[in-house]
Amino acid sequence: MRPNTTKSLIDWTRGPSSGVWQPSTRADAPRMEAAIMGWSTLERPLDAKPPAPMTVRVQALPARSGFPDHTHEWGQVAYAISGVLAVYVPGQSFVISPKHAAWLPAGVAHRVGSPLGAEYRSLWVATEAVDIRMWSDAVRAANIRVE
To answer: What whole-number distance in Å separates Cα of residue 26 and Cα of residue 36?
Structure first.
């Protein structure tokens, strides 16, 4: 049965292999989905510059807010010192508590938000500063120890 779309901004299509109704893969679908769910879209500050070699961003994320799908030319460690983050990459999602962090390699499409609000921290790392023996070119969620 096709979902009731009379009040929806999302285009629905049948999945190619399953035949199940699902939101379309239009480029603006994540923004439309966020709007329907009542999430606020946050934008990166216009004066943000690439890391040289590292930049720390500090931002309070209100409940039900997040950054839309995006990529950048540097790696990113996303974490929260309080609250919870939701990190989405193609095919994966992570819930990040203050005891966890997510590594997002350069060029990986991702979005980060907070369902309940969070004190968000982001460490941007220039690709030339990344030691591949320590960091990976794959998305990772990891436990962190706070002392």
So the answer is: 15
CATH number at residue 50: 2.60.120.10
Parallel, antiparallel, or unpaired for β 54-61 and 118-126?
Answer: antiparallel
Q: What integer pLDDT is reported at residue 6 of this predicted model? A: 39
Q: For residues 126 and 53, what is the distance between their CA atoms, to the nearest angstrom?
A: 5
Type of residue found at 22: Q
24 and 81: one domain?
no
- β-bridge pairing 40-41 and 65-70: parallel
pLDDT at 48: 81
Residues 58-103 pLDDT 10s:
999 999 999 999 999 999 999 999 999 999 999 888 899 999 999 9
Report yes or no on 81 lying in a domain: yes
Task: Work out the angle at residue 18's Cα, subtended by the Cα atoms of residues 12 and 20, and round it to the nearest 5 degrees.
Answer: 35
